[in-house]
Amino acid sequence: MVDSIPERADIVIIGGGIVGCSVAYHLARRGRSDVVLLERSALTSGTTWHAAGLVGQLRATQNLTRLAQYTATLYAGLESETGCATGFKQTGSLGVASTEARFEELKRGASMARCFGLDVEVLAPGDVKSMWPLAETRDLIGAVHLPKDGQTNPIDTTQALARGARSRGARILEHCRVTNILAAHGRVTGVMTPAGEIRCAAVVNCAGMWARDIGGWVDATVPLHAAEHFYMVTESVAGLAPGLPILRDPDNCAYFKEDAGKLLVGWFEPLAKPWGQDGIPEDFSFDQLPDDLAHLEPLLAAAMRRVPALESAGVQLFFNGPESFTPDDRYLLGETPEVRGLYVAAGFNSIGIQSAGGAGKVLADWIVDGHPPMDLWDVDIRRCLPFQRNKKYLRDRTVESLGLLYAMHWPYRQAETARGVRKSALHDRLQAAGACFGEVAGFERPNWYAPPGTPARYEYSYGRQNWFEHSAAEHRAVREAVGLFDQSSFAKFVVEGRDAEAVLNRICAASVAVPIGRIVYTQWLNERGGIEADLTVTREAQDRYLIVTACATQTRDFSWLRRHIPDDAQALAIDVSPAYAVLGVMGPRSRALLTSLTDADLSNEAFPFGASRVIDLGYARVRASRITYVGELGWELYMPTECVQSVYDEIVAAGRGFGMAHAGYHAMNSLRLEKGYRHWSHDIGEEDTPLEAGLGFAIDWSKPGGFIGREALLRQRKSGVRRRLVQFMLERPDRLLHHDEPIWRDGRLVGRITSGMFGHTLGRPLGMGYVENDGGIVTTEWVHGGRYQLEIATERVPASASLKPFYDPAGERVKA
Ligand SMILES: Cc1cc2nc3c(=O)[nH]c(=O)nc-3n(C[C@H](O)[C@H](O)[C@H](O)COP(=O)(O)OP(=O)(O)OC[C@H]3O[C@@H](n4cnc5c(N)ncnc54)[C@H](O)[C@@H]3O)c2cc1C
Questions:
Q1: Residue nearest to ligand 1 atom 25, measured at CA
Q2: Atom 52 (ligand 1) nearest CA
């Protein structure tokens, strides 16, 4: 055990795996030398030491790809910087496809990779054979080659990062276990170890598979679970050329890495084996788990079919080691919403080596600058909800999450395990009506409705899936008659108190100094003018507001709200999400339908767009808000959860006379895209300003006291925007847009699609995306002056562009 520790430090890092060492290295590079890393055992003794060391660069989104690219560049230069050999080699990688769908997936990935500036080429099976002669290629359809992918030695790379950190002043203490995190008034104050206490302002939890329980010490949610993870290493294989690219064979769940004439074969099997549910042993150090040859047998057989030389190769080692997995297969990064000054970098889902460089860099920037350096929502720990710490939930989901890395990444794919955690009070009724549910943040939401006799089950593909026509019928019902949406998954917060208006006016870009009964559509901005949240604020009373935001951002938005209420303000924020159910009644016949159920005057004069009031409906008192996300006349109805069944029954009974249909979230998505409504996390986020996103109309520039982000926006308004969100309509109806498809203007790459869906009223695939003009100002004339193509799976398809919505640009239907 270490005998002496400092009494104070600026930042304490828990855990000396590759991630903790990368955070220490990057903090030191940012000039924070008063950093102490505490490692329970020796560096790399948890998961890092046994990783296969693959360093791929193409990730699911642009920013995660940027981080992986950064990691590869960092590792490539680390040896010359620190004098510590890392074993990093840029051998490239080959991803092969043995089905048409997989080839489409790989080609879509290739299009995306190009858009992100990665070298990539699409290959025929014959090319695979010449690059990897020992591979069986007769069943292949095609492949993708990423020449800049690489591999590294995880232990040596970690030691190099540690040396780089030490040389800049960071202290790395091995054999020093952290036994508690100290916090007071919601803020970190230090850590406890057997050698005493270290007082500090920030703690970074990089404890790998121990990180969940360590977070639990201060009630912070760090949802991850360990699983057994397997590979084998052969003896020398005859004919295996040195320097081969890594061969990924996702259809057989396997990857193959050549190293010193031997083959390392690893797997991402669809049904994994969770491990350590009752806690990770404290003394687990450079340990491995027992072999399970029965589990591996089918995987091994498939691997031998791909590389027949394996049949005769001797086996040097079967390896089984634990790694942590998260419920959505994305890692956990950032400051916890529960405790200020407590940061997390954990749950790396078997890509911790290739992610550590980038994750360490952005987390160090986040700690030093007080905000993330780029949009990191995909991995931001504020996406998690408290229930996700539940161990049974994590264990059950981990069975599925390990295999996801190599599973088909179907559009609209839904998790198959640990479902049904959060349900609307209408769940059973909606199921009886044919709902096929999708899950967001554990909430089961109807995505589409199957007609009687049709199973409410997804059949995935890259083309039109089995629900396409059913969702189209829901879409049309909303446009032509009336649709009923269960929107109970919305997050709802109440802000109450004498200073509620002043507090919210500072947080919101729009003015909330409005009469009682008005709904305000607004963004919450950061100091840089980026959009942190996109929501509505309804004035319920002089001193009370109702805030409604998306289900997925419940934790994040509530945390932002609470952290921006000054200590001395008389304003209390309460998360009331489960207390209220929400029904959306949307479409041209919504007024007639609701009028048959209430004595309230719903006419345009008495109840204009943007109004909200409490009315009688059925036997309940319901807050009716005239607002829409689908671009039609309609009301959102908010009521105590216990009243929603009776209200729903009345609406459904009356709805028969008005052509009402149940409608799901897929229809909502196609409706909102026709109308050009933005979706936070896809079309807008913390790196996008309202001026770039075309949301300038929602800003109140002149309200007293201003708002967070105003100064940055004023500067941007003066200088002009360099990127702009544009709507696109494909000229061909047979291809579908999802996200990240490259946007070409007059043959030049100018951006990528942020969200896409088929627009059933327009009869064409629709998308949105930011376009850039080579660093110049993006004017309306420039946007409309180009000829556009969108690239789908390497094929460029002509598209038209518009800054206005394609559907009802004047907004007449909403105000009807
Ligand atoms: C079989 C296998 C193959 C893999 N292959 C690859 C690959 O090819 N490419 C890739 O990118 N990734 C791969 N990975 C994943 C990668 O190894 C991990 O994602 C990565 O090592 C995680 O690093 P970490 O620093 O988060 O965790 P760890 O390496 O586990 O580090 C956490 C550290 O925290 C310490 N700690 C815990 N509790 C305390 C405490 N209370 N006080 C002080 N210290 C504490 C532990 O001792 C440990 O050293 C693989 C994983 C496995 C299992």
A1: 17
A2: 51
Contact indicator for 474, 449 with CB cutoff of 8 Å? yes
- Pocket mutation for ligand 1, best pick of 22, 39, 45, 47 (most atoms within 8 Å of C-beta): 47
Residues within 6 Å of ligand 1 by CB: 14-20, 38-41, 45-48, 50-54, 177-178, 206-208, 210, 214, 229, 231, 266, 321, 323, 346, 348, 350-354
What lies within 8 Å, CB to CB, of 801 at 6+ separation is 726, 727, 728, 771, 783, 784, 786, 788
Q: What is the pLDDT of residue 663?
A: 98
Q: Whose CA is nearest to atom 26 of ligand 1?
A: 208
Average pLDDT, integer, range 447-459: 98
- The pTM score is 0.97
Strands (E) in 240-331, as ranges, are: 246-249, 254-259, 262-267, 273-275, 315-325
Mean pLDDT of the chain: 97
pLDDT at 2: 75
Confirm if 324 and 225 have CB atoms less than 8 A apart.
Answer: yes
Q: Are 132 and 94 in contact (CB under 8 A)?
A: yes
Condensed to tens digits (0 to 9), the pLDDT of residues 156-183 reads 999 999 999 999 999 999 999 999 999 9
Give residue-wise pLDDT tens across range 256-311.
999 899 999 999 999 999 999 988 998 999 999 999 999 999 999 999 999 999 99
Cα atoms in the 13 Å half-sphere on the side-chain side of 245: 24
> In sequence order, which ranges of 55-175 are alpha helices (DSSP H)?
62-82, 100-115, 125-131, 154-166
C-alpha–C-alpha distance, residues 122 and 189, integer Å? 53
Distance (angstroms) between ligand 1 centre and the Cα of 207 equals: 8
pLDDT in tens, 26-74: 999 999 989 999 999 999 999 999 999 999 998 888 889 999 999 999 9
The count of other CB atoms within 10 Å of the CB of residue 346 is: 31
Q: At residue 105, what is the residue type?
A: E
> Tokens 């038209």 correspond to what residue?
800
Q: Which atom of ligand 1 is nearest to the CA of 209?
A: 30
Pair type for strands 531-541 and 443-449: unpaired
